[in-house]
Every structure is written in C-alpha cells, then in structure tokens.
Write the structure tokens for this entry.
Amino acid sequence: MSHESEDTLLVFLKAPVRSTVKTRLAKTLGDELTVGLYVCFVQDTIMKVSALKPVTVYGYPEGFETALPFLPPGLLMYNQTGSDLGERMARALASSFENGCDKAVLMGTDAPDLPTGYLTEAFEALNSHDAVIGPCTDGGYVLIGFRRNGFSAQAFTEVPWSTPEVLKKTLEIMDGLKIKCFLLPPWNDVDTFEDLKGLIGRLETGRSEAPHTWEYIQRHRLKDHETCHFCHHPCSE
C-alpha cells in the first residue's frame, strides 16, 4: 500500500447486513430501516472524507466490499484484521505509518454529520501533538489519530471497548506512555434512537450536514417513530 500524501484518513466500516450494524438502533427502527440508514451513514462519511484527504477503507467481515457497490472507484480497501477492535485499529494505523504516512486519523461511520472542519482540526493538532482524539458524549470517541513518531499500539490494549470507559482508559494509557494527546470538542455519534433524534435536530436546523442521511430520514419519516411509541415498523400514513 502506498500513499500520495503525508496525511491519510482511515475509515472503519462494516458490511450493511441485518442484525450486525447499529443493533441498538434497530431495536427501535427495525432491521430494514436501520440497514438502509447505515448505508447512508457510510455514503455521507466517504463523500466527506474523500474530498479532504486520501482515504483507506478497512471493512469487516471479509468480502465486505461486495455489499458496498456504491463506494467510489479507486478507494484503497482492506479487511480489518485482529482479535478485537483495539488490535484492528492499531494494525490499520501501523500499516499506514509503515507505508510512509506521517499523520493518520482513524474514524468510523457512526457520525455522518461530522464537519470537515473537525477533521481538518484533527490533522492540525498533530502538528504539535503525538495524538488527537475526538471525544464522544457516550464515553468513547468518534476519531483517533497519531503522527508517526507518536504512535504506540499499546494505546489500544486493555481498553474496555463498547463501554463508557473507553475514552478515560485510553487517556490513562496515553498518559502512562507519555503520549501528548490533543482533545477536540465532544461530538455525538449515533448508536441509539435518542442519538438519532439529536442528529435529526442538527440536520433540521442546518447545524450540520449529511445529505444522504437527511434524505433517507425525511423519506422514511424516521422522526415520526417517536410519536409511534418506538414502533419497529414504519409509521402508517
């Protein structure tokens, strides 16, 4: 793998398969609507980051790309490898640095309205810091990045993934490793229906943008699920 830039964005995603993506959100929306919404998250994320920096996609499971035919041609795409999320992220970042990248930022697809300015700030922070994290309000993070000389795979070990302690534990590890980390302002990802309502509010008021996601929300009247007592099927006309 080679990069034409000193900087690169790594995007972690899953194949859009029922019962495997956004499972907490699916408890409210049902599998079909949730999978469709997740596809829009991926589209908006890739569209945004591709206009900013060279992008490498790391997907799961093996063969994920066949379920994502809408991705633009020319993207570098690889399978995620490792025994847990931490190892998979560490290996992806390490691979970027081994192939000549100076600064790498890794993100998922759970925050489709993350502003490009937020990503630009992440890379700028790496000019003076070893690492950067975009905290999430649920105790995790929406992105993490390193510059080559500040990277350590140990930052991803013994982290209690999928818990509210992810950010706290990661910062403790970095402190012990003497990794100088810059914290961006908190952002919201979308894991639950409450999170989705927050996203809808931001998109409605123009505070953020995610055009594929917003069109899907409007077309399927996802906001109406609140008045249908969290029904599992589209609301009746």
